[in-house]
Each structure stands twice: as structure tokens, then as C-alpha cells.
Specification:
Blueprint (H helix, E strand, L loop, with lengths): L5 E5 L6 E3 L3 E4 L7 E4 L6 E18 L4 E7 L2 E7 L10 E10 L5 E9 L8 E10 L9 E5 L6 E3 L3 E4 L7 E5 L6 E8 L1 E8 L10 E5 L3 E5 L9 E8 L6 E9 L5 E3 L1 E5 L41 H32 L90
Antiparallel strand pairs: 1-10, 1-11, 2-5, 3-4, 4-10, 5-8, 5-9, 5-10, 6-7, 6-9, 11-22, 12-15, 13-14, 14-21, 15-20, 16-19, 16-22, 17-18, 17-20
Length: about 425
């Protein structure tokens, strides 16, 4: 089983964006020797990452207050203090886990850190970021940080466990040759670097360690003379360039002086369109140029293959058939709607006056008495158009015969056309 590790991202990486006035602080105990801080309210920095957890490590000045706002994907967290008391005998607290969130969703995230307090001096400096990669993380050109407590490390013999403020993640381990101690580090990558403290200053007190890579390459390390009794964050071993793949480094103490392991960096090779795991994410944007490697190449997306001539012809034929089918559908719809359209209604004229029917005169000797009252039928306006006017009820023509001539006499009464009154009866003079 290879070591697990988490991605480490330096504050000086080009993917970390600072706004406002920020200053750098140099100290060899810090990752790559630098950190970044600000004393002005409103300054901020942001970083994008793809993973399932995030941790911000900082260097904190114990004597002064600070107040930071952490905005992770829109959720706001606050971290403020009036000063720290842990490791009070030291001026600074290194590698402090100022902010951390676990169990994030597998995807892209954005963290923005804002300074919410004006101070006379810079009291907190951002050193580095640690985040757990996921199946969607593009691992090309990234460094994995492997802590001394990583479950993938295999310790044999007696190893001393220690804690110190200057250790990364505040822990380290040490062993000498009295117990046949060794540590085996299986990893996948194209470079490995071993970091630890050196606790001796005199030449006769120097540690001696043996590094065996892939059971073939052996390197013996004896540190140079130290300027102090203890120095932290020393790069004790560097494998140099390797082929990307699975390797194993075995570290063995070779004398009675302690060999300390603080952390290991495993660098991933630059690949084209590389995505770790089985995720389907299409090359998410990830930071580049991490760790000690000098490779600065950006991730290049994979080019798509050109479309063949046969595929183009098939697309054209399919498009033509689709257009013809659409035309037929439109024609059928129009014909169906034509059969279903209602006939136009005849125009109505409310001022229409019906024609009065009068039977034609028929000569004859007899005089017929007509009723003294008009038929009780209301006159109904007729519609114009091709429909013939209907005849009034009760005034139908008489059957053909030879009655005496009928004499009509004008009564002198006139009824307007719009009057609701019934038509007055006619009469016959005696």
C-alpha cells in the first residue's frame, strides 16, 4: 500500500490570489522558508481546489491579536484571538492549523480569507494549504505531503515519537541503530524528498543515515556542520527525477545518533489531461508548480479527434430526412385544420324591416268580411344573405278560387317601423 498523503500548496504558489497590501515573512522553519501576512482590514486571499477537506497552516505571533474571516463556498467562519499561550516560551507558533474543514463534497471549492481587523503589526502569516485529493483531482505536477503519522509508512524497531511547535503538524519521530530501526516508504510518483530535524552541532555527534531506493540505489547521508544544536525543516534526502510509477524508499539509522523524520514530499509527474481515480470530471483547473520540482509546465488538455468524412455525410443525410419529415407534418396539419374550420356567420342587421305579404287581388262577385283584429304574431326581423325572408304566420295566401273582389280601405293610421305595436286590422266597407 502506498502512502496516502494530502496535497500541499505553498502560499507563494501562483494559484493563490492576494488582494490588498500583504508582506512576506522569512523563516526556514516554514514551508519553503516564507509566509504571507497583512495588518490592514479588507485585505484577502483566495484559493481554488478540488478535494474533500482543507486546512490552512499559519505562523502566529503570540503577542498580538488578529481576526480573520474564512469563506468556504459561501459559508462564513471566523477565527479571532487576543494572543496564544501554547508553547509560550517561543515567540512564534509555527504550522498552526488556523482553519480546517473535513467531509467536503467531492468537487471544486473556493476558500477566501479576509482580514477583518486593523493592527499595528502583522500577527498572523499564512504559510501553506493542505487538502485531501479526490477522484476528480488532477494530480499532474502536484506535491503530496506525507506526515510522519501517515498509515502508509511502515516502521520497524524502536522509534521515538515527539512533539514540537516547529515540526510540521507538530509531530516527528526519531530512531537510532540500537534496535535495527528502519522506516519503509512505498509511494507513487516521480520524485521523493525526506525532511527532518538535525539535533547535533559537533562533527563527532553527526547522525548517519542510509537511504535505499527500489532496493538498488543506496545513499548515505551525513549532515554538514550545524550553526545551532537543533535545526528544523532540513531536506535530508532527494531522490532526483524518477520514472512516474510505484517506488519504495527505505531509511535506516547507521549510528547511535537519532535520525528524525518529520514529513516526506512525493511529487507527481506532469501529464496531459491526467485525472486521478475513476471520476468523470473533465480536467478541473488545478494549481501547478508545487514543491521542489523545477517543472513549470501547465496542464495541456487532450485534443479531440477530427470528424471523419463518413460521419459528416451521415449527419447531412439525417438532417435532410428530418427536414422532409417536418414539411410533411406541417402539410398534414394544415389540411386537417382546413376541414375543421367553422363556416362564417351571416352578418346581422338589426334595422331590417320585414316585407308585409298581401294576397294579389282576385276579381269576383262576393265580398268577404276580414277579421276585425290582426293576428297575434310578433314581427321578427329576418337575416340578410342568401336565406329568403320567411312569411308571417297567419297571413298565408288563400287557396286558388274565385271569391268576390276584396276592397281595402285605408284607415289613416300609420305605425313607425321601430314601434312595438301590432299592425292595426284592416276592414271592408259595407
Amino acid at each position: 500500500m502506498s502512502v496516502q498523503g494530502v496535497v500541499i500548496l505553498d502560499d507563494q504558489d501562483e494559484s493563490v490570489v492576494f488582494t490588498g497590501q500583504w508582506d512576506h515573512y522569512a523563516d526556514p522553519v516554514q514551508y519553503k522558508g516564507f509566509s504571507t501576512g497583512s495588518k490592514n482590514v479588507g485585505t484577502s486571499c483566495s484559493v481554488n481546489f478540488t478535494g474533500t477537506s482543507i486546512l490552512v497552516a499559519a505562523t502566529i505571533v503570540r503577542s498580538g491579536p488578529f481576526s480573520l474571516e474564512f469563506n468556504l463556498d459561501g459559508q462564513v467562519y471566523m477565527n479571532s484571538t487576543t494572543g496564544l499561550s501554547n508553547f509560550a516560551n517561543q515567540v512564534h507558533s509555527y504550522h498552526d492549523a488556523t482553519f480546517s474543514v473535513d467531509n467536503l463534497g467531492d468537487g471544486n471549492h473556493q476558500l477566501t480569507i479576509s482580514n477583518t481587523m486593523n493592527t499595528d503589526a502583522i500577527n498572523i502569516y499564512i504559510d501553506y494549504f493542505l487538502y485531501t485529493p479526490s477522484s476528480h483531482t488532477n494530480m499532474s505536477n502536484l506535491n503530496l505531503f506525507v506526515d510522519d503519522r501517515d498509515p502508509g509508512l511502515v516502521y520497524t524497531g524502536n522509534w521515538r515519537f515527539d512533539t514540537a511547535d516547529s515540526d510540521f503538524r507538530h509531530t516527528s519521530r526519531a530512531a537510532d541503530n540500537t534496535s535495527d530501526a528502519a522506516v519503509s516508504i512505498p509511494f507513487t510518483g516521480n520524485n521523493i524528498q525526506f525532511y527532518g530535524l538535525i539535533n547535533s552541532g559537533a562533527v563527532g555527534d553527526m547522525l548517519l543515515a542510509e537511504f535505499v531506493l527500489d532496493s538498488t540505489s543506496t545513499t548515505t547521508y551525513a549532515p554538514p556542520a550545524q550553526t545551532s544544536d537543533i535545526t528544523y525543516n532540513n531536506k535530508i534526502y532527494d531522490s532526483g527525477p524518477l520514472s512516474q510509477g510505484s517506488h519504495r524508499l527505505v531509511v535506516t539509522p547507521k549510528n547511535e545518533h537519532l535520525v528524525w523524520i518529520d514529513y516526506v514530499l512525493v511529487h507527481q509527474a506532469v501529464t496531459t489531461g491526467s485525472v486521478q481515480g475513476t471520476g468523470t470530471s473533465a480536467n478541473p483547473t488545478m494549481p501547478t508548480n508545487l514543491g521542489a520540482s523545477t517543472t513549470n509546465s501547465a496542464v495541456v488538455p487532450t485534443k479531440h479527434n477530427a470528424i471523419s468524412t463518413g460521419a459528416i455525410a451521415g449527419i447531412a443525410v439525417g438532417a435532410l430526412l428530418f427536414v422532409l419529415l417536418l414539411i410533411c407534418l406541417v402539410i398534414t396539419l394544415l389540411r386537417w385544420r382546413g376541414r375543421k374550420l367553422p363556416r362564417p356567420q351571416a352578418e346581422v342587421n338589426n334595422n331590417y324591416v320585414p316585407n308585409m305579404y298581401s294576397p294579389p287581388p282576385d276579381p269576383g262577385p262576393a265580398i268577404v268580411q276580414v277579421a276585425n283584429t290582426a293576428p297575434s304574431v310578433q314581427l321578427i326581423p329576418e337575416h340578410r344573405g342568401n336565406i329568403p325572408p320567411r312569411k308571417l304566420l297567419g297571413l298565408q295566401p288563400q287557396p286558388t278560387f274565385s271569391p268576390p273582389p276584396t276592397i281595402h280601405t285605408d284607415s289613416g293610421i300609420r305605425i313607425p317601423s321601430d314601434s312595438p305595436l301590432e299592425t292595426p286590422p284592416g276592414y271592408t266597407a259595407d
